[in-house]
From TrEMBL:
Belongs to the CcmH/CycL/Ccl2/NrfF family. Gene3D superfamilies: Cytochrome C biogenesis protein. Residues 9-105 form the CcmH/CycL/Ccl2/NrfF N-terminal domain. GO terms for molecular function: metal ion binding. Keywords: Heme, Iron, Membrane, Metal-binding, Mitochondrion, Mitochondrion inner membrane, Transmembrane, Transmembrane helix. InterPro entries: CcmH/CycL/Ccl2/NrfF_N, CcmH/CycL/NrfF/Ccl2_sf. The chain crosses the membrane at residues 78-97. This is Cytochrome c-type biogenesis protein. It comes from the Eukaryota. It holds the Pfam family CcmH. GO terms for cellular component: mitochondrial inner membrane.
């Protein structure tokens, strides 16, 4: 068993190592066989006087990078994060294009009105929406009260 002086170190390390069987729990909370094996390995390494970095390095060498909650930043993880940025950029580009296209369609509709080209039903609705002033009930009732109506 670990001495009381070494328990905080074990607790900190074991809290940062997920159970590879459970996935959602740390080895500190898990009762799975692999968690117990990792727990014993960490205890042995602490008793041997190894530093935190050395213990994490041994775990990574023995079990792979997935045994740690915080994997290293390398080409694989960089590609993953950059792909998210790429998807966000494409979505933003599509949104901006649609907004630009909306404005362009209004301008084309206005030109067609000047040229005398008849509007379809969707364009007529858009024209009414654009040309109708917004309803402001508070202002209208205030104005009517002022006039005495």
């Amino acid at each position: 068993m670990l001495t009381s002086r070494r328990k905080p170190k074990w607790s900190m390390i074991s809290h940062n190592v997920p159970c590879t069987e459970c996935g959602s729990q740390s080895i500190e909370d898990s009762q799975a066989d692999i968690a117990i094996l990792l727990w014993k390995l960490i205890c042995d390494e602490i008793r041997a006087g190894k530093s935190d970095k050395e213990i994490y390095k041994k775990l990574e060498d023995d079990f792979g990078e997935t045994v740690l909650y915080n994997p290293k930043f390398d080409t694989q993880t960089a590609a993953l994060w950059l792909s998210l940025l790429l998807v966000a950029g494409v979505a933003g580009g599509i949104w901006a294009y649609k907004k630009h296209r909306q404005k362009t369609n209004v301008h084309i509709m206005a030109l067609n009105l000047v040229r005398g080209v008849p509007l379809n039903s969707k364009e007529k609705e858009a024209k009414l929406y654009i040309l109708t002033p917004p309803q402001m009930p508070g202002l209208i009732s205030w104005w009517r009260r002022l006039q005495g109506q």
